[in-house]
Inverse folding.
């Protein structure tokens, strides 16, 4: 291995790279080192995926969850389930294939039911943990919407602690939807400033409002801003209905003008009283943003699941349920097939070959064909 240390000037770096290229040295392809580690059995598939998740993690909880996967905890749990299914499969397959053999135990329905129930419970827990992890993959998105001049851009600038959006007392200042990244105590969320929604004939404003509507669709949660000086009007009510605004907080801004106190209600929708101008009540907004994401304690035990893992686990669970329904001397074939499908789905999470597993288990635990 050689290491070249040079100044970061692009012209210098490029000329060194060109020289190296001429000598037959090339850039590593994306993920190539991880790919090699996988093919050389230094990492399993889940760990390889976790490296990519770690790189893309949007906050400290996602990092923790990716580490859980990388350290092999997730693989251990999948393996426990896989091994349990495997040993049941080995027993059933032996009964079917070697019915005369004395080494093969008789089918104990009660014992089998108990084992399957235990595996089903572990699988359900693992699916739940992976699903919680899946939610961590997505950066939560908030949209700030409301009538013109309610203070949406000021609200966002306050949270970002910078003059990101133009603010003015002219209605219709913001004409476009702009997404910003907000970092609150290592928690990254997207927040979208939108054009004030109302009835208008102005073509540019109309386009802006259409973009606000699509931001509403994109967002996980909405802050619907109302100028407290005007109060919540019939127009606001109509706009919330017209734009199908469902998961929202009603934020009453400008309480410095109405002389109200900051507060948050527990009703639905929750009402939050703030003044962006004085900053009063804005900590309530920050609390709300932090609370709606999963808690730190949770990420200690969850895995940065991928939909691939969840699909495989769910399919494994479904076939295991079918297997439980087929526990019967007469339907051994059906039981064996459902167990095979469940095993197949679980090993797919790990990217392994289930047939080799089964043969090894059958021939090591029973003395068949000696
Ligand atoms: N008194 C007072 N004025 C505020 C407060 N928040 C915002 N404003 C003022 O309200 C006016 C409109 O603010 P903006 O942030 O531009 O409002 P907006 O909702 O983004 O408006 P559009 O982009 O036109 O839809 C500006 O003059 C702000 O200074 C507040 O808490 N108190
Ligand atoms: Mg604005």
């Amino acid at each position: 291995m050689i290491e070249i240390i040079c100044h970061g000037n692009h012209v210098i770096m490029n000329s060194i790279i060109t020289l190296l290229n001429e000598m037959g040295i090339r850039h590593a392809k994306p993920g190539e080192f991880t790919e090699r580690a996988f093919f050389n059995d230094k990492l399993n598939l889940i760990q390889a995926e976790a490296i990519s998740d770690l790189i893309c993690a949007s906050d400290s909880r996602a990092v923790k969850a990716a580490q859980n996967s990388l350290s092999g905890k997730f693989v251990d749990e999948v393996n426990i389930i896989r091994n349990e299914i495997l040993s049941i499969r080995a027993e059933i397959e032996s009964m079917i294939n070697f019915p005369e053999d004395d080494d093969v135990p008789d089918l104990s329905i009660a014992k089998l039911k108990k084992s399957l129930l235990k595996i089903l419970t572990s699988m359900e827990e693992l699916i739940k943990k992976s699903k919680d992890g899946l939610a961590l993959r997505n950066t939560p998105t908030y949209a700030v919407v409301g009538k013109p001049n309610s203070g949406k851009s000021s609200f966002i600038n306050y949270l970002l602690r910078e003059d990101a959006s133009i603010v003015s007392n002219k209605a219709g200042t913001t004409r476009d939807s702009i997404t910003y990244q907000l970092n609150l105590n290592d928690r990254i969320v997207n927040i979208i400033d939108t054009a004030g929604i109302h009835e208008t004939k102005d073509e540019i404003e109309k386009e802006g409002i259409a973009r606000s509507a699509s931001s509403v669709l994109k967002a996980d949660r909405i802050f619907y801003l109302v100028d407290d000086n005007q109060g919540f009007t019939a127009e606001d009510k109509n706009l919330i209905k017209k734009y199908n605004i469902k998961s929202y907080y009603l934020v009453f801004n400008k309480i410095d003008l109405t002389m109200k106190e900051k507060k948050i209600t527990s009703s639905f929708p929750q009402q939050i009283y703030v003044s962006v101008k004085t900053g009063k009540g804005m900590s309530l907004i920050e609390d709300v943003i932090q609370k709606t994401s999963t808690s730190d304690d949770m990420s200690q035990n969850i895995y940065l699941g991928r939909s691939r893992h969840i699909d495989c686990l769910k399919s494994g669970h479904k076939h295991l349920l079918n297997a439980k329904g087929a526990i019967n001397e007469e339907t051994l074939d059906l039981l064996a097939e459902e167990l095979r499908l469940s095993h197949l789905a679980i090993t797919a999470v790990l990217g392994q070959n289930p047939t080799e597993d089964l043969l090894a288990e059958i021939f090591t635990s029973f003395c068949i064909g000696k």
The domain at 70-136+302-366 is CATH 1.20.120.430 (Four Helix Bundle (Hemerythrin (Met), subunit A)).
